Structure formats: structure tokens, C-alpha cells
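Task: sequence in, structure out. Protein: Ferrochelatase.
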Amino acid sequence: MKNQEQNSNTHTGVLLINLGSPDSPKVKDVRKYLIEFLLDPRVIDIPYINRQLLVRGPIAYGRAPRSAEEYQKLWTEPDGSPLIAYGYEVRDLLQKQLGNGYKVELAMRYQSPSIADGINTLKKARLKKWIIVPLFPQQASATVGSVLEKVMEEIRKDWIFPELVMINQFYDRPDFIEAWAEVASGYNLQSYEKIIFSYHGLPQRQLFKADPGHHCKANIECCQKITRDNQDCYSAQCFHNTRLLREKLKLPEEKCITSFQSRLGRSEWIKPYTEDVVKKLAQDGFKKVLIISPAFIADCLETIVELGMEYKDLFIEHGGDTFDMMESLNANPAWIQSLTNMVTER
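Result:
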């Protein structure tokens, strides 16, 4: 279901926005997606000329064919990308839950369905209030910041502005933690020797840029406790997210590890790197490990392929036996309820 009907009682628009996906796993479509994605200055924050040369050269023609092979591993027909398919399913379930007073649309920051199309649909509906929901639990300039900037770029073209609500983070909401606990209930957590909580990484320099008070030390010690100084720090939010989940699931602290995946390039990113953690656990003799990624609300390339396939192979290659990946929230009813609460509270 990709079209929504509007009721005359509809007063509030809800725009769910995730990262995006290529239109197909063909190299040309993956290349188009990577160029749009990685030319975003909030994603690769280096000088304009350097970014253009890097993305349109080595990445577009070196990385795209490899990425296309990875997308082929998760692509299904007729649904295509799981990220998009789950997006539409969540949109429809949320629409049903919210009822006729709301009009729920789905958009992607890059490629289709576009933010511009989602905004235009809400404009045509002449709704009094819009709620923008970037589907990223933790706040980062490269994700939430980029989404909200793009939304404002589209909205400012009009003379009349709706009442606007923007949700910039939700990693610490009790109902979000509860949704993950619901997914975790399908796993025998006690049977695993170690549980890795893996989040998408960021270059360390982006942590410094997001710290106007110069509090950031870009190390684990600095991020261990949420304070007024670091409450908007992506890394600190990730460590706190792990702590909240660990406490909810009643897991011993020594069993849980927070790490960061998907490093791009040679610059220093947030540590520890998930790849290094996985390898070391296997080398240290651990045989059964579970990995969870609370940064992703739907399964996608980074979970299905990177965590579920590549890191599993890495673990076994270095001596491990069992490496399981917990599925994401996807369209879990508890996740739909969490989204419903987020929207109706505003």
C-alpha cells in the first residue's frame, strides 16, 4: 500500500524519514545512491572539492560495484530493499493505529520516496500541524541533522508555514527500550557468553564539531555517563542506550560490550570498532556471541550483511562457533506503539 487516502477530519501530518536505499541492486542505481548520500556535507565533512573528487571517483567507481553485490544479498522481489519494505509496513500500521485524525507519509533522505514528495503531499492536504520523525534513535548531524536541514530546505519555499514539531532523538524513551526488550524476548540471552551492542560509527571529528562547550574527549571514559555537557553527544547517547537496554534485560555489565561499525576511510572514528571487538572475542576463546544494533530501527545492509554475514564469518574464521544477530524492530507491535506515543504526545 503506497498511497494514503485522506479523511476530512485529518488535522495532523506525520512524516517518517529514514536514510534511504538504491532503487535496485544494479551498479548504476547503487552508484547514484552513493553519490547522493556521500556528497552530503553532513556525512562526509571535508572540503567541497575533496569530497567531490573522493565520492565521484574512488567511491562511485570503486565502491559501487562491491556495494551492489552486498545489496543483491538482501534484495527480495517484489519488496526490494528491506529498509523500504519495512518503512511502508510501519507507515501503514502507524496510520491504522493513529486513525483518521492523522495522515502518515514515508520518506527517505536519499533517493525514493523523497522528502520533497512527502512534504508536497502534506502541503496539498493543507494540514494544520506536521510532526517530522527522523527514524534515528540517537542524534547525529549526519543523520538527524541532515534530515531536518533537508525538511527546512523544502518548507522554506512556501509563504505559509504549518505548526511544526521535529523529533530529534528517542533512544532513551521507555517505550523504545520496551520495544527492543520485546524483540529480545525471542532470544535466550543467558545462553550467550557475550552480547555486543553495535552502533553506526562516526568520525571523531564530528563529535568535536557537535560539542560547542569543548567538553568532548572522544574516548569511552568521557561517554560513560550522560550529563548536561554531553547529553547531545552521539557517542554518549549510544553508551547510555546500551546501559538502558542492559538494565531492562537484566544483563550483567561484564557480559555487554558497546562498539561502533561501518567505518569509512582511514580517519579515526568512535571506538571500539565492532570488527576489532568481534575478532578479539573469538581469539580470546569466546564461542557464542549475540550482536544487537539499536541504532537501526529496521533491518538493512548494515545489519543483514555487515553484522549478520560479514562479522559472523569473521568470528568463525578466528575461532568462534556461534554468532547470532538479533533482528531489528522492523514492524514489531511494540515499536508501532512507541511511535504512536511519540506522535500523540505532541
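The beta strands are 12-20, 102-110, 129-134, 163-166, 194-200, 256-261, 288-292, 322-325.
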